[in-house]
Amino acid sequence: MSYENPAGQAYSGQASPYAQPRTFAPRAQVGFVEAIKQYYRRYAEFTGRSNRSEYWWVALYQAIISFVLWIPYSIALGGYTASVASASTLAEQQLASQSFPAAALIFGALGGIWTLAHLVPNLAVTVRRLHDTGRSGWFILLGLIPFAGGIILLVLTVIESKPEGARYGA
């Protein structure tokens, strides 16, 4: 096999010293830590492909963080609504409703900030996963269809990588 460098000189060997490194080429398997590194490294990159393991490790990571943030929020909010509901008189209900728990505010704000900060990278990794299955990233809009859209998108992210996905990146 021979290659030419930019000056037009021939080079023969296994790989060209002038070839671009395949940084974001899909890999057979990616571990949890490597998937999270790729997720943040490719924060807003909607080109290229992401294999199944990268996508699903990121989904697990998101689920864990969401659980850690939203469970304390739900507990604090549940205690608050129980205290308002158990108040027997109007005056007790007004007093209970004025003391909204600080924990619910803090964890609600943290959860909201986390969700907004990760909206773009979640969209990007899903688009790259769709590319890996040989589909356009615009298929992500199927998620907007009530009820069935999420299921369709789930099925599309679960299926195997396809060679047609090569048109979206190495």
Explain how this protein is built.
This protein has 170 residues and is mainly α. 56% of the residues lie in helices and 4% in strands. It contains 6 helices and 2 strands, in the order ββαααααα. It has helices at residues 32-41, 52-86, 90-98, 102-117, 119-132, 148-158, and strands spanning 2-4, 10-12. Strands 1-2 form a two-stranded antiparallel ribbon. α2 (52-86) runs antiparallel to α4 (102-117). The longest helix is centred in the middle third of the chain and has 35 residues, at 52-86. The protein is elongated, with a radius of gyration of 24 Å. It starts with a strand and ends in a 12-residue tail after the last helix.
Q: What are the main properties of this structure?
A:
6 helices, two-stranded antiparallel sheet, disordered N terminus, mainly alpha, 170 residues
Give a summary of the structure in a few sentences:
This protein is mainly alpha-helical.
Helices, by number, come to 6
Query: How many strands appear in the DSSP assignment?
Result: 2
User: Gyration radius, to the nearest Å?
Assistant: 24 Å
Average pLDDT number: 81
Name the strands of the widest sheet in spatial order: 1-2
Main pleated-sheet profile? 2 strands, antiparallel
Approximate helicity band = 55-70%
Percent range for β-strand residues: under 5%
Beginning-to-end CA distance, first to last residue = 20 Å
Order of helices and strands: EEHHHHHH
Shape: elongated
Helix-and-strand structural type:
mainly alpha
Low-confidence stretches: 1-6, 21-26
